[in-house]
Design goal:
rod-shaped, 69 residues, mainly alpha
Length: 69
């Protein structure tokens, strides 16, 4: 089975339905279905410290924990 993203490139990121057919055969009809879902999270925390006082306290605490002084 081929990957839809490999066939359609970047446009496959939003979902592609790929229909393949085979030569018809006499008898009962069968239908097969498979899927694949994925999610992702942000890799960067955008909750920045904007207060100078909070930044200085955080820096002091980190220094104390690292050096014990």
């Amino acid at each position: 089975m081929l990957s839809a993203a490999a066939i359609y490139g970047a446009r496959g990121a939003f979902g592609v339905m790929l229909v393949t057919t085979k030569k018809g055969q006499a008898g009962k009809m069968t239908i097969g279905y498979s899927n694949n879902f994925g999610t992702s999270d942000l890799t960067v925390n955008t909750d920045f410290i904007t207060s100078g006082y909070d930044a200085a306290r955080l820096n002091d605490e980190a220094f104390l924990r690292a050096t014990g002084e």
